[in-house]
Amino acid sequence: MIVHDPSGATWRVKRRWLPWRLRRRDPERLADVADAGGGSPDDLLIGLAIFVGVIVLVVVVPFIAVLAIMVAELLLLLLLLPLFVLLRAAAVARWPVEAWRADRLVRAEAVRGWRTSHHRMLELADDIRGGRLARPGESPTS
């Protein structure tokens, strides 16, 4: 659920279905390929072949490897999801309840039971609306 605090900041309060979070992959963190400089016209064909080989090694191979890892992770999540849902539905495992502000985890709690976790989410949302849940680096205003 999306909640706004008194200063107007947007928060997300949610239950996490799996006991871990997916890793975020930022394409902007990839290193740029450096410019090798100029060469003579005689070396154009060799330079072009080396350039294409480097592009394949630097861009295509890692792209395929990352794609394969992401697909494998997704398949693993899909296989384990029914198990975790059954364990949590039987009140054996706890539901992680989280409060996020601007992609930063502010509060995480483990609550046993679907209804209890829903009530805890509502309590956290009320705390955020009332300014009683501190943002990172701040103290509550209560």
Describe the structure.
With about 140 residues, this protein is α+β, with helices and mostly antiparallel strands. It has 2 domains: about 70 residues; about 40 residues. Helices cover about 45% and strands about 20% of the residues. The protein contains 2 helices and 4 strands. About 10% of the residues are buried. About 5% of the residues have low confidence.
Brief summary of the model shown:
With 142 residues, the protein is α+β, with helices and mostly antiparallel strands.
Task: Lay out the secondary structure.
Layout: E1 2-4, E2 10-15, H1 44-89, E3 94-101, E4 104-112, H2 114-129
Antiparallel strand pairs: 1-2, 2-3, 3-4
User: Structural class, judged by helices and strands?
Assistant: alpha+beta
For the record, give the distance between the C-alpha atoms at the N and C termini, rounded to a whole number: 23 Å
Radius of gyration based on Cα positions: 24 Å
**How many helices in DSSP terms?**
2
Roughly what fraction of the amino acids lie in strands? 15-25%
Count of separate structural domains: 2
